[in-house]
């Protein structure tokens, strides 16, 4: 991704409350690849209150893009992330965000970009654009939107999330929750709106972090 012109953050800027911590109707119907029917089932069953991550999220969404993602050991299931008590970003949801959790045992990404809207400027992070790809193990993302051109090998759709076995120990979801898994996943033109990301190991060659007037 081409570098964006640097910009100095404005003094006193704060995230716009109306844009934080809300599960908007179009985001509640999370687009989990590969089928709209799978998405609908995920959104309904995540109402059981499964936690996607084990830490309190900030409630500030961030955008992640990559020209290509290749992964081995893929799992996906619904979840519910929770903000710290009294968070200014909780909106009218009580500090909870409906998410789809995606787990990849081993992942490689080309031209990774991550941006956070700080209200007037963006914190922009780029890596993996100089010939050496970003790599991660046990990569886990909690997303409200996901898009791209995806392909899977040996995909299974409709599993109980507690029985998943292709993505390792982190690829297990709550019992009774709809899920899917595959031996491999490839997504071109990946774009995600995330509330949390974790990884066992995350290698970012060519890392650049800066403030910018442009997002990913």
From TrEMBL:
Comp. bias intervals (Low complexity): 1-18
Pfam family, one: DUF6230
Upper classification of the organism: Bacteria, Bacillati, Actinomycetota, Actinomycetes, Kitasatosporales
Transmembrane stretches, start-end: 28-51
Matches recorded under InterPro entries: DUF6230
Protein name, UniProt field: Cholesterol esterase
Keywords of this entry: Membrane, Transmembrane, Transmembrane helix
Disordered: region residues: 1-25
């Amino acid at each position: 991704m081409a570098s964006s012109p640097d910009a100095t953050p404005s003094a006193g800027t704060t995230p716009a409350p109306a844009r934080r911590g809300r599960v908007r109707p179009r985001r509640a119907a999370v687009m989990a690849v590969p089928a709209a029917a799978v998405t609908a089932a995920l959104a309904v069953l995540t109402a059981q209150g499964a936690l996607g991550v084990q830490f309190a999220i900030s409630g500030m969404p961030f955008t992640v893009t990559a020209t290509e993602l290749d992964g081995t050991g893929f799992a996906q299931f619904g979840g519910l992330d929770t903000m710290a008590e009294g968070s200014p970003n909780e909106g009218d949801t009580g500090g909870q965000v409906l998410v789809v959790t995606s787990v990849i045992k081993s992942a490689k990404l080309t031209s990774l970009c991550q941006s956070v809207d700080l209200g007037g400027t963006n914190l922009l992070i780029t890596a993996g654009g100089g010939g050496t790809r970003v790599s991660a193990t046990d990569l886990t993302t909690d997303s409200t939107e996901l898009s791209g051109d995806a392909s899977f090998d040996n995909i299974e759709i409709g599993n109980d999330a507690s029985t998943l076995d292709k993505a390792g120990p982190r690829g297990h979801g709550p019992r009774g929750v709809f899920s899917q898994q595959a031996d491999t996943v490839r997504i071109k033109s990946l774009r995600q709106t995330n509330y949390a990301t974790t990884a066992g190991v995350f290698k970012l060659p060519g890392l650049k972090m800066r403030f910018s007037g442009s997002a990913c």
